[in-house]
Amino acid sequence: MATVIVPTPLRKFTNNTARLEVKANTVLETVQELAFHFPDLQKHLLDEKGQIRSYLNIFVGSEDIRDLQQEHTIIKPDSLVSIVPAIAGGSHF
Amino acid sequence: MIWIESNPQKGMNEDAINRFPDECCGFFFGQEAPDGRRIITDWLSAKNAKTGDKTRRFEIAAQDYMRAEEYAMQNELLLLGIYHSHPKHPAVPSEHDRLAAQPYFSYVIISVTQEGKTTFRSWRLNDESQFEEEKISEPQNV
Q: Residue A88: its chain B contacts at CB < 8 A?
């Protein structure tokens, strides 16, 4: 089973668990599996179309999935998947 | 309610002044009491990775975010939030701040003037994804 690192702001939706074991073949399946087991997490991970939200970065090991096969990136049993929220803002809209 | 110890307060304050007119940004760490009160004991400055106008926007690279999570784990602290400055603007979140904000995190905004005068205010998202001000307390009230 692959290991998923849950970022601090989303841990209140995973019973304060930072690392979760997930059985999945791709990044999208991994995220969908998390959303299934933790329904309150769903709106923070997936948009209305069931796609991974654009303000989330997903890393497999040290690689950004944007540099791999996006949400179709293959997950192996020993993969370490990190969910990383985009941090941004500023004084003007 | 949130209390910022003097060291992180001084560090974040200097960061806002030294990086003026650009927006500074970074992380802060500490502990949370069972009733939700937060004590900030440590901080880490981060590079403003925004391409383009850094005087009105900030962005923190994903790698820096992951380092902050690791720092919290290694030091047995909680990553409690993000700080950034609003040069020549009030310490009030913009709509851009709100749209990019995460649940749980405290967002400390530091207003900084041309003369180097700073004002700290802290904000958190409520369940309706709207910002509510979080009182920055005097130490004896924590």
A: 50, 57-60, 96, 100
